[in-house]
Structures are given as C-alpha cells and as structure tokens.
Amino acid sequence: GENVEQHPSTLSVQEGDSAVIKCTYSDSASNYFPWYKQELGKGPQLIIDIRSNVGEKKDQRIAVTLNKTAKHFSLHITETQPEDSAVYFCAAYMDSNYQLIWGAGTKLIIKP
Amino acid sequence: EAGVAQSPRYKIIEKRQSVAFWCNPISGHATLYWYQQILGQGPKLLIQFQNNGVVDDSQLPKDRFSAERLKGVDSTLKIQPAKLEDSAVYLCASSSTGTGVYNEQFFGPGTRLTVL
Q1: Cβ-Cβ contacts under 8 Å for A81 (sequence gap 6 or more)
Q2: Tell me, what's the pLDDT at B98?
Q3: I need a labelling partner for A82 at 20 to 30 A (CA). Which of A19, B42, B62, B66 fits?
Q4: Facing residue for B56 by CB, picked from A43, A95, A97
C-alpha cells in the first residue's frame, strides 16, 4: 500500500541551530503535504503545508521544500528554540481515497 | 472558537471488556475522523465521516470496533471486546468541508487507552 517514510526518528540539536526532517512518499498522485507538530499529551497541530505546484514555502523560522520528481519533501526549522521540542509528523494526501498517510514521526530535542 | 473535545482523557480496562470514546468536533465541521496512534507511530485512520455518513472505514477492525455519528455532530467510537493490542491513543479530528479538498484537520487531545 501507499506509505510515507520519515527520517530521522530522533533528532537532537543545540538551541539556535537548524533542524531538518526528511520524508519520502510512494503515491505519485499525492498533491498535498502537511506537517504536524505534536506536543506531549496533545493532539497533532498543523504547522505548515505545501501543495504540489509549489517547490518551497516559508513561515518565519519554518520552511518546507518539495521535490515531486524524487517524491520527497523536507521540513526546515532555523534558530531552534526550546519550545520547538516535540514530535513532528509529515503526511501525504492521497487524492485516490482522500486519506492522509502519515510518517512515523521525528522526536526533536532542543538542547539548551 | 472551541477546539475538538474528547472524553475520557484516560481509560484503563481489562482485556475482553468494552470501552467507548466520545468526540465533539469544532462547530460547523462536516468531516470527522477517528485515528489510532500507537506509541512511537503516526496516526492511523480508523474511520472518516462526512456529516453522518461513513466515507472510509477500510481500516476499522469491524469485528470489534464500531463508530457512529448521529445527527452529523458528536461521534462515539466503541471497542468490544478489547484486546491488548488496542492499547493506544485514540484521536478525533475534524475539518471544515468535504472530501477531495485539502483542509486542515484539527485534533482533539486524544484518549489514552490501556488494556491490561
């Protein structure tokens, strides 16, 4: 079936440094790629998304890039802060059955 | 606006018992989702409603799981009988319009189920 692979599973960076999380997807018909942040004890929350007609999107310290040919997309967080510590999930929307297929998540740890 | 509400937040049961979870979506949201999130994994869709009709329940273990969304608002997810492998967080989410459109899903805090 369709799947989304996410790497790394855990990422530890020094406060102020950048963090990059990468995902690959299998369904070439996917056209929408959201990123969610999940804090402990809470449900996931959308932080940024990108559609297939765009190669890059930025929102303050967060950016997402998409390479449709290679079927991979990445989340970039610059100037990391303690509040960025959380689990981040990528997902790909399958137009064929209107489902989001989720990656396994990346636990981001910001070291003071 | 109020977010997605879920209850209970935590539940501990013995295997073979039954359990029910409740979800109240954001007002006006037509689409409601139930996800199962096992520790260390991403959410897995169990069932998706559009108003009070089922859009997709292909990954719902129908021999033990059931869900309903009466009147197109609140929803209940039930497990009967529970198995050890059902231990997970059950997340409810809602979005504003129907299928085929890329709409943000808003999640509730989840119900953490432990089956002993």
Answers
A1: A15, A110
A2: 56
A3: B42
A4: A97
Contact yes or no for B60/B53 (Cβ under 8 A) = no
**CB-closest option in B40, B45, B91 to A43:** B91
Residues in contact with A9: Cβ distance below 8 Å, sequence separation at least 6, in sequence order:
A104, A105, A106, A107
What is the band of A29 on the pLDDT scale with cuts at 50, 70, 90? confident
Does B43 sit within 8 Å of A102, measured CB to CB?
yes
What tens digit of pLDDT does each residue of B9-52 get?
Answer: 999 999 999 999 999 999 999 999 999 999 989 999 999 998 88
Query: Is the peptide bond between A44 and the residue preceding it cis, with omega within 30 degrees of 0?
Result: no
Nearest by CB: B109 against A32, A43, A49: A43
CA distances to A21, B13, B42 from A3, in Å: 17, 32, 11
Assess A112–B contact: CB distance below 8 Å, yes or no: no
- Alpha-carbon gap, residue B113 to B116, rounded angstroms: 10
Tokens of B62: 């129908």
Render pLDDT for A71-96 as a digit per residue (tens, 0 to 9).
999 999 999 999 999 999 999 998 77
- Residue A82 CB neighbour total at 10 angstroms: 10
Is A43 at the interface with chain B, CB within 8 A?
yes
Q: Which residues of chain A have a CB within 8 Å of the CB of B25?
A: none
